[in-house]
């Protein structure tokens, strides 16, 4: 409960002797521009998006002030109030009260509000100022406000609130010096008592009334409605054009990642091959040369090839999110999603799952209904994540001839790829239906989705996001995939036969492959694929490197060589079964770990793993039988 | 029990607006709706609706645009 004695301290005092670093919390409602401000302050990469509640975890960064002093900044999830009802609000609430394990109570707060919607956003100031922490109220999007004819009196508003106020545009950097002044503790304002008492009873109506009064005394003039947003919504939410544009956007994204990415991928592939060949000439010891070139270089390289494709996908998702279109897409998709018992808010996580299930599962925190959330988490790995692309690309390129189907728009290979995407989606839908009518049955929760104004995505925001993704991907390539490549090389080259590596069939890896062969034989897989299936339990794309190593050891090393090797080793039935198996199986340690973290027990990841493995095995078995019966 | 005496949000036609009287929903949902601007006394104007049946629908309220399904909107009762 608030009391009116909670004065705010105007600036953040310098730390006393012995104190290490000050911690500044950045909070505000969704879409106020917190993340953009955080990026500007810290220069560190962090996901920023124009969709309510996309920042589900707090992000840490360092701010270096002019004096050379360093501060720690935390970017917290967007919230509408401090009542800890959703997970997002709980995180923010706990951090602000110093209850978050491992984080000290913040020394100051940057409260970021959207100045174009001040009446509503100022509501959050009441509970935040009541905390009594030094707080800077940042009225963001000042450029939007003035362009749309709105205005306010910063000094008057500051006096009413008893806290310093800064008008900023996180996008252009306008007003930014006031934020830095506050953080340096050099702002001229002293400790003041608010002219407007904070509401005693902090329920929504009284906070809203307080916000109106403060706004009126701060001479706030609300801006005109966003004309361009309304004009664009007339098109994007049009009864006919809306769904047409929606479908076109989805198709364009897919076509881009599958066709336009090819030259980039070929370039990376050529670079890896050339550098590998050069590396080979530098090493004289044949065993060491084999480890470096065949084991590490081709193992890690075969996965690196897919970096351009993954970045292209994240580029498109970034633009859709930051522009505000994704909220419209969620609205268009809501009716379809509700048919399988889910809701439009599940659409965003599920679309992100096309890139990677890990951020998708973290993004489900915005779904307030627990059962809807768990259902979304459980089906997310069915969506075709980018780790499946290397496997799909390899098999499709090896077994499906490239012919145009619908002019330049759709070729056989793109169609096949699209088919696999649809298959994953259908499996997700089927599973969602199953879950929502059995163990996760729930009453339909109220669906509320804010439509943010359309905004130009900034190069900085998209760039930071891509940098972030590239870093995560390269980290994985440099750790998990590197380790597996080395272990696999060792297993494939031991036991030594008179000081020479054995034939792959006689190696330890070969023995393991032969051991599992009876189980996978009905799917049309031989023992070599078996080794790949085992290593890909860690991460799907690992199978490409594994097969590269296995076949590389037998004499071929290039991508084309791998395709040729597979053609002679797999029937068409086996190839289709392998695609189907990868579409449905849960082969990703990182996803299981994040599901465990988000659901709080091993129960859900265990159910998910068992269900998906059985589903994948049965479907691959059927696919092998059907294709073999039809084409032989 | 019917609330046929008073109109609810779903009865608003395009271009028409109404003033919210009360929200007949559980506390948690009502509170979130109020935080989004659906407060008694506020004026609400419907805008675009989703294709294929018009559900959900966007409502303009308190400077924001919020999409609601009709199953939710029918519990937001307007002043007569």
Summarize the structure.
The complex is a heterodimer of chains A (632) and B (80). With 632 residues, chain A is an alpha/beta fold.
Question: Which SSEs are present, and which pair or pack?
Answer:
The complex is a heterodimer of chains A (632) and B (80).
Chain A: E1 22-27, H1 34-42, E2 59-64, E3 70-75, H2 87-96, E4 108-114, H3 118-121, H4 125-130, E5 135-140, H5 142-147, H6 154-161, E6 165-167, H7 176-184, H8 204-217, H9 227-236, H10 241-282, H11 286-304, H12 307-323, H13 325-339, H14 347-352, H15 357-363, H16 370-379, H17 388-399, E7 404-406, E8 410-411, H18 412-437, E9 448-450, H19 459-493, H20 508-520, H21 527-535, H22 542-553, H23 559-569, H24 572-584, H25 589-599, H26 603-631
Parallel strand pairs in A: 1-3, 1-4, 4-5, 5-6
Antiparallel strand pairs in A: 2-3, 7-8
Helix pairs in contact in A: 10-11, 10-12, 11-19, 11-22, 12-19, 15-25, 16-18, 17-23, 17-24, 18-24, 19-22, 20-21, 21-22, 22-23, 24-26, 25-26
Chain B: E1 18-23, H1 27-35, E2 43-49, E3 57-61, E4 64-68, H2 70-73, E5 76-78
Antiparallel strand pairs in B: 1-2, 1-5, 2-3, 3-4
């Amino acid at each position: 409960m608030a009391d009116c004695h909670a004065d705010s301290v105007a600036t953040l005092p310098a730390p006393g002797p012995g104190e290490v670093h000050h911690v500044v919390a950045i909070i505000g409602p969704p879409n106020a521009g917190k993340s953009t401000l955080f990026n500007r302050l810290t220069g560190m990469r962090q996901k920023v998006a124009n969709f309510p509640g996309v920042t589900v975890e707090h992000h840490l960064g360092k701010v270096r002030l002019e004096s050379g002093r360093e501060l720690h900044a935390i970017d917290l999830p967007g919230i509408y109030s401090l009542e800890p009802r959703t997970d997002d609000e709980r995180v923010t609430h706990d951090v602000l009260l110093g209850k978050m394990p491992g984080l000290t109570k913040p020394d100051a707060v940057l409260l970021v509000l959207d100045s174009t919607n001040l009446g509503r956003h100022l509501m959050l100031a009441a509970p935040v100022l009541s905390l009594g922490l030094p707080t800077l109220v940042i009225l963001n999007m000042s450029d939007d406000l003035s362009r749309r004819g709105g205005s306010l009196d910063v000094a008057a508003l500051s006096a009413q609130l008893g806290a310093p106020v800064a008008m900023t545009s996180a996008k252009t950097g306008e007003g930014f010096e006031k934020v830095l002044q506050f953080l340096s503790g050099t702002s001229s304002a002293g400790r003041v008592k608010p002219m407007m008492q904070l509401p005693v009873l902090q329920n929504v109506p009284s906070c809203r009334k307080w916000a109106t009064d403060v706004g009126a005394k701060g001479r706030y003039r609300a801006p005109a409605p966003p004309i361009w947003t309304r004009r664009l919504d007339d098109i994007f939410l049009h009864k006919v054009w809306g769904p047409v544009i929606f479908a076109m956007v989805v198709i364009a994204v897919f076509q881009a990642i599958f066709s336009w990415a090819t030259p980039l991928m070929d370039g990376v592939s050529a670079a890896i091959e050339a550098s590998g060949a050069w590396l080979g000439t530098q090493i004289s010891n044949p065993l060491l040369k084999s480890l470096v070139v065949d084991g590490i270089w081709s193992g890690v390289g075969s996965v690196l090839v897919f970096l351009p494709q993954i970045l292209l996908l994240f580029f498109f998702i970034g633009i859709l999110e930051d522009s505000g279109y994704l909220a419209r897409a969620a609205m268009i998709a809501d009716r379809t999603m509700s048919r399988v018992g889910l809701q439009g808010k599940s659409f965003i996580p599920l679309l992100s799952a096309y890139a990677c299930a890990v951020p998708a599962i973290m993004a489900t925190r915005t779904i307030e209904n627990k059962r809807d959330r768990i259902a979304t988490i459980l089906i997310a790995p069915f969506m075709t994540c980018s780790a499946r692309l290397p496997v799909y690309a390899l098999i499709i390129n090896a077994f499906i001839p490239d012919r145009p189907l619908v002019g330049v728009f759709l070729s056989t290979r793109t169609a096949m790829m699209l088919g696999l995407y649809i298959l994953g989606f259908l499996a997700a839908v089927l599973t969602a239906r199953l879950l929502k009518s059995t163990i996760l049955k729930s009453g339909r929760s109220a669906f509320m989705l804010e439509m943010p104004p359309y905004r130009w995505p900034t190069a900085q925001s998209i760039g930071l996001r891509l940098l972030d993704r590239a870093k995560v991907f390269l980290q994985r390539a440099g750790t998990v995939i590197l380790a597996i490549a080395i272990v696999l090389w060792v297993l494939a080259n031991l036991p030594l036969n008179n000081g020479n590596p054995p034939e792959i069939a006689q190696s330890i890896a070969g023995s393991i492959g032969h051991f599992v062969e009876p189980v996978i034989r009905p799917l049309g897989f031989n023992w070599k694929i078996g080794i790949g299936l085992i290593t890909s339990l860690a991460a799907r794309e690992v199978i490409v490197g594994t097969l590269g190593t296995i076949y590389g050891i037998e004499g071929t090393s290039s991508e084309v060589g791998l395709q040729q090797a597979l053609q002679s080793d797999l029937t068409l039935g086996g190839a289709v079964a392998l695609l189907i198996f990868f579409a449905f199986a849960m082969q990703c340690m990182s996803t299981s770990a994040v599901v465990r973290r988000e659901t709080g027990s091993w129960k859900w990841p265990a159910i998910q793993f068992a269900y998906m493995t059985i589903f994948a095995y049965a479907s691959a078995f059927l696919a092998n039988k059907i294709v073999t019966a039809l084409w032989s | 029990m019917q609330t046929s005496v008073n109109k609810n949000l779903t009865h608003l036609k395009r271009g028409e607006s109404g003033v919210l009287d009360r929200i007949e929903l559980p506390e948690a949902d009502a509170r979130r709706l109020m935080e989004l601007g659906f407060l008694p006394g506020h004026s609400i104007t419907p805008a675009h609706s989703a294709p294929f049946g018009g559900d959900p629908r966007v409502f303009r309220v308190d400077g924001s645009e919020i999409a609601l399904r009709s199953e939710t909107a029918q519990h937001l009762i307007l002043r007569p």
